[in-house]
Every structure is written in structure tokens, then in C-alpha cells.
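User: We ran a pulldown and think these components assemble together. Before we commit to crystallization trials, I'd like a predicted model of the whole complex to look at. Sequences follow.
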Amino acid sequence: MPKARPAIPRKTRIQTQNEELILAAALEVFSVHGFRGSTVDQIARTCGLSKPNLLYYFRRKEDIYVALLEHTLSDWLEPLRALDAAGDPLEELSRYIRVKIRLSRDNPKASRLFANEILHGAPMIGKFLKGPLKDLVDEKAAIIAGWIGEGRLAALDPHHLIFAIWATTQHYADFDVQVNAVLGSPQGLMATAENTLITLLVDGLRPR
Amino acid sequence: MPKARPAIPRKTRIQTQNEELILAAALEVFSVHGFRGSTVDQIARTCGLSKPNLLYYFRRKEDIYVALLEHTLSDWLEPLRALDAAGDPLEELSRYIRVKIRLSRDNPKASRLFANEILHGAPMIGKFLKGPLKDLVDEKAAIIAGWIGEGRLAALDPHHLIFAIWATTQHYADFDVQVNAVLGSPQGLMATAENTLITLLVDGLRPR
DNA sequence: TCCGCTCTTGACCATCTGATCAAGAATTAA
DNA sequence: TTAATTCTTGATCAGATGGTCAAGAGCGGA
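Assistant: Here's a predicted model for the assembly, 416 residues in total across the polymer chains.
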């Protein structure tokens, strides 16, 4: 009886290990220089592999980039997914803002990676934006609209409210350099930012 | 008497004309692909000049980029400069938000140009951010702090308030692709965005 | 018209960069 | 141990790209 070759070949220990190494290095490089501004050699050096060796795992530069985007996309949406129709509107949204701003603080590189991709017209994840992302946002916007209908939230366009939350929170990761330049020193930056945003947005959200 | 050669040579008609042509094309190209992602040839083709001819006016690619940034920077700050301590706080800030969002709508390319530059660490305009920009923001933050001290505005960190305004308004230019993907169709987009932001932010700003 | 200066361009160069390949080293399963 | 498979790399290539140069075309003042 011939040995059954698995249709989907199992990954070697070395394979998974090196792929992780490469993706970590790629995040480091792509988040700073963007797709076009990064070189395969740069990524290879960052993770200590030779260029041909790196290209053994990902045949094209673009493959690394796409894999990296897919690898981080779902984490990025998790907080919004958690928005619960059964919860208290202001508490749910406060929590969302808080989680979002902390995600930006703890993982600014992923934020900048997406910012770069979208700023350049989302050539790789355009379909994702129009599909899964739009679906999720529409779903959560409906929840918010429901809250507004019940008079538990100020009457605001739900989609634009979500944009406002995205914009304000990600600003601290994406435009980090500008924020630090203007503030002079980054001391206690994120705590103040968080409080200011919660106060500003949540007070703007109270029903009246 | 020898003819006095002007220390600063006057610009030829052709010179000014072509420089404008080049800067317009450069904005077109740089705002989409960023500095590294754009090629001199692309810019040259966009404005109908040959590559060497373009490089006759700007010797290096970087020179075009810097000239373009300087050319648009001051326009970009004008609305903030107009914030008037003598005016009514809520009206002044409403006006600022409105002007800012319209600027993003009417000149998204400039917005994306800056976004790109800052996202990549502001290698060219770092000094500008720490100098003139910081000075202006500090000055206007002081005005806002004054208003808060008089109890005419909610108690918010002025700097972070300004960041929130920047973030929300520029979002529509910088992440244009994502906004359109999520909304489906861009009809009446900006009007709704403007109303939502004014309502959200200004209500969050009311003193209590 | 004439002359000097500005403007324009085809040809060219050096470098960078994504990608390939063949051949050898390391690993794994039997 | 052995043989098959996976992994690694030096050498190399083709195309893209920023930038140069010399020579000619065009323009404007006298």
C-alpha cells in the first residue's frame, strides 16, 4: 500500500518557525517604509536569513506582504466584533474606544501597516474592505442605530461615528511622529489621550 | 556702467510655468504612491515633459518632493491660525472643524501627501513639526485652555482636542478608499460627515 | 538680425532590487 | 546507516530607476 501523501502537506518545524520569523521582520520593515519602500534584503537582514532563503518561504515580496496583512487583519477587527447590542450603549462604546486606543498603543506597527495600505488605495485588501469589513461595520452600525432609535444615544450617523472612533484612536499610532513633535515629550501621552477622547466622544454621545 | 546682474536671478516665464506644471504633477503622483513609490519618469509623463527636462528644473527627485511640501504646508495650517481668542469658543471650534473637513474634501491629495510623509517618520519635515507647527499648536492650545479656565468649554486637554479634530477631519481624505468601501456609495458623504462631526465634537465640548 | 542665454532631449551610466538556479548542507523517516 | 526530502546560499540576471552629459533647438534683448 503506497504511503498516502497528504493533499495539504504538513508544515515542518523549521518552516513554521521561519515563516513566523519572516512575518515579524516584515512587520518591522513594511510598517516603517511601506510596501514599495521596503526591500526583500532589508527584511532578510532583519530576521537573519539570506535573501534567497527568505524567497524560498515566500516566493514573491508581495506574498510576504499579503500574508502579513491577512495575519493581522482579524485581530484588528476583534474589538468592534465585541460590540454588544445587549449592553449599555455608552458603556459599550466607551469600552470600544478604550480597547481601540490601547490596541494602537500596543501594536502601532500593525496600525501603520494598514494605514499605509489604505492610503495607497488598498491595492491588496480592497476586496476585504468592501466585503467582510463593510459587513461587520454595517452590522454594528445597525446596533448603534437601534440604540439611537430607543433614545439611548444622541442622534448621530452610526457609520460616521465609527469612522470618528477609528480616526481618533488610530491617529496616535499612525501619526505618532507628529504627535510627539507637537507635544514635545511623550510623557503620560496615552493616558491623557484616552481620557480626553472618552470625555469628548462619550459626552457627545449622550442622548438629549 | 556694467549691467547689474540681479543677485537673485529673475525667473523666466517658461521657468515659473514649468515649475508649476511639475509641482501639480508631483502632487498627483506623490499623493498616491508616496515618495519612494513614485518615479521621476511618472511625474515627467504626467506633466508631459521629458525626464531630463524635468530634472533641469529640479535636480533631484527629493527636491521636487520638498518643494511640494513647502508649497502646501502653509495653506494647510491657515485654518488653525484663524482660531480667534476673541470669538465664541464653540463657534470658533465649529468653524475650524467645518473649514478643516472642507479642506480635506477639496484637497485630499495634499492631505494624503502629508499623511504619507508623517507616516514614514516625517524625514523631510521633522523640523517643521517640532518648530513652527508645535509653536502654532501651543499658541492655540493656550487659547483653548483660556476658554476652559473661563468655564466656557468642557475641561479637555487642548492638545488632544486639536489632535481629535485633525484625526476626524483628515480621515476622510487619507482613508478615502476605506470610507467609500464601507459606505458603499459616496453620495452625500461629506455633508453627513460634517454634520456628524460637528454634532459629536461640539456637544462633547459644551461646558457643564 | 545677431548673440548669448535658456531650454530640451536622446543616449547613456551606475546602482538597486526582485527573482532564479544549481549545487551543496542539514534534517528526517525508515 | 541510508536515502529522500527539505533547507540554504553564492552567483547571477533582467529590468527599473535616479541621475548625467553633450549637443542642438528655441527665445529674448539690443
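Residues 12-59 of chain A form a domain with the Arc Repressor Mutant, subunit A fold (CATH 1.10.10.60). That may be worth checking against your pulldown data before setting up trials.

User: Thanks, that helps.
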